[in-house]
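We modelled the chain as a single entity of 476 amino acids. Its sequence is:
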Amino acid sequence: MDTIATPITLMASKYAARNLLAAGVFANALPFASAHAAIFAVPGSSSTIQGAIVLAATGDTILVSPGTYPETINFLGKNLTLRSVGGATVTTIVAPGMTSVVIFGSGEGRGAIIDGFTITGGKPPAAFPYLGDGGGIFVRNSSPTISNNIVTGNVACNGGGIHVGLGSPVISGNTITANRADCSQLGPPTLNSGGGVSLEGNGGAAVVANNLITGNTAGSGSAIGMNGAGAPLIFDNTMTANTATDFNCLMSGGTIWSVNKSDADIVQNVIAKNNATCNGGVVLFVLSGTRGPALVNNTIALNGGSTSSGINAEGFDANSRVISNIVVGLPGSTAMSCTAVFASAPPIMRNNLVYASGGIAANGLCASQIGLNDNFSADPQFIAVAAGDYRLLPSSPAIDAGDGSDPLIPATDFAGAPRVQDGNGDGIAVIDIGAFEAPPRTGLVTPVPVGSPSLLIFLAALMATMAARMRKQRKP
């Protein structure tokens, strides 16, 4: 990709699993082809989608023509492909009443595929089997493949857009927007967890990759809420303009919220310009005896929050890894907060850029980590924050300053470029900090035109780059 304008334009070209880390996961999602598989058409074979599912068997494909279908869809345990002909913008499934729109609850596997629909209007009741969860898509004891859909305008207690309980689905290439985690149907208005996606179930290993998650609302986890989620992979997603309204800071908010046994791998996401009462970016409550989440090469920038703008770590988090992330707080805020209520040591922190203009880079147990293990505080120098472009300027101190040893490092960056390049032109290729890798340079110094008013700015940036280079050379 040559140019990047906004996270939304990035997502348009990122729906394919083009990364080695994701490739192995998505390969497992492909169903085995059957020599006798049938194709059903809607309308044609059936006037309704659910009618076609009743007719079809595992391995079959159902192709749905453009239109609006007022139905609740249940895959009935069949590993079949349900795909729209014209794509999600012209093919809509809308809940006909108080129900989830799409249900996977009978042990479906990765071969159960829903691809290319707008899924809207879901509002499940508190009664079994929904328990008020999963407005757009409800997954229970199943592991389907959910790809290339627009999940929007749904409400549920947990998982306004998508709820996963005790399953390992692949959720990829979707736009998950304008959903709400809200238990108002059970009594007084109560914002809950997982405005976009909620993940629960200690045995789960869900994959949430290459999605645009935007404009969702919850009390905590406005984009993704995890409560005993097992070991999910959250990779290459854009999360922006989500809102965590957590009254009295009881649940601590967060765009991503993780509590109990949720040993998530959170890799190379852009989490930017989300809103929150308490904590705007990522919230980690780590259960005693568990590893806790690993945050590797994410860009977490300019999120709201009175307690922390970027990362808030609480609980028994000494084994959690925070490696090569850019964490930028709003001006005057605290970028990273680490409490000592349960822990006596901070998370494992290496090669992070943690910064808040006019504010505090890190407080609590994490304050001592700034200046150690190649963690530092400096302006990351994004190309164009106003346009949602979080790539790095050539003078950024985050270039060639990351930790290349972590096992979660992917082969390509958020934009699909090779992950390790010589971005500062010193002849040594080192991974950059954050979600984006700067392109290679042939020389360290970029000429500044004579009389340029940017000369002083350039010299200051050059000094920051040289300092980053010195840090890299000091590594063993």
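As a brief sanity check on the tokenised model: Residues 1-33, 443-466, 468-476 have pLDDT under 50 and may be disordered. DSSP finds four helices and 43 strands in the chain.
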